[in-house]
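Feature request disguised as a bug report, sorry. It would help if multi-protein outputs had a clear separator. Right now it looks like this:
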Amino acid sequence: MWTYMNTSFFLARPGIQYEEIAPWQEAGGTWRRLKVHFPAQIVTHSTEQTLYFDQQGLLKRHDYHMDISGGIGAAHYVSDIKKFSGIVFPMKHRIFGLQPDGHAAPEPLAVSIDIDQLVLF
């Protein structure tokens, strides 16, 4: 969960490399995409991931291939954005399989996470 809740903040860390790639059409809108390369010292699902942002700059989706599971692809959607101490966090996480064409598999829902409260220290 730590990685899921902090994904956007990682972009400001030293050693993170990223580049904007072609926009993506989904859910009736155009999402901007960043291909992100994480250094080895950040423990995450994979060193290369793709982040999708809406027109307001909010993270909507996060794709990765799980290194520990033979490279299985995941499309991780976030929603129900709420503010805590002025910082926005997604409270709902839905993770589906990732198809070869980059679309999320409609079924099955692999992971469902609902966060009821969040406390920042």
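(second protein starts here, but nothing in the output says so)
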Amino acid sequence: MTDAAIQPAVQPFAIVAERRADVPAREALLDRAMGHGRKRKSSEKLRRGRRPSEGLAFAARTADGTLVGTVRLWDVKAGDDGRAALLLGPLAVDPQAQAGGIGSALVRHAIAEARRLGHGAIVLVGDAPYYGRFGFSAEKTGNLAMPGPFEKHRLLALELVPGALDGVGGLIRAAGQVSAEPRTSTIAA
């Protein structure tokens, strides 16, 4: 049997702006893709109680409207001087639709929209081999820290404006609008 024969067929998808009605499907997708422990991550501390940055929450949908992927960007202040940046995450693709390019398309779309809206930099906690292909690296994050435990080598950044993170150092803090979205309960792993 060939690899193509055992891979699930990936349906065509479109990336669209996330809607308020997407919240239950997004939360269920995140639980399937990342597990319930996702809510204890350092990045989550920066997102908790906040809204995504204006115009930077996206959903990948199949032709029948099924949510198969999600990514959001959040306003943060990077370092002691409070430099404006975005935090990417979580990025998730339904396990049944992985390996179909959905995650890559979501990241590319999020970067393009952040650049179009005039943002200077994006930070994230993730795997360098995956995010490196989009231009993310640890080159400018060596003096930055997350609230709570994190793996230093996984703190990556992408400058959308050259020099946006030059000399930055200190804690990354939450910024942006407080959310009116109802809190979902944290389920123990």
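Even a blank line would do. Unrelated, but nice: Residues 102-116 form the longest helix (15 residues).
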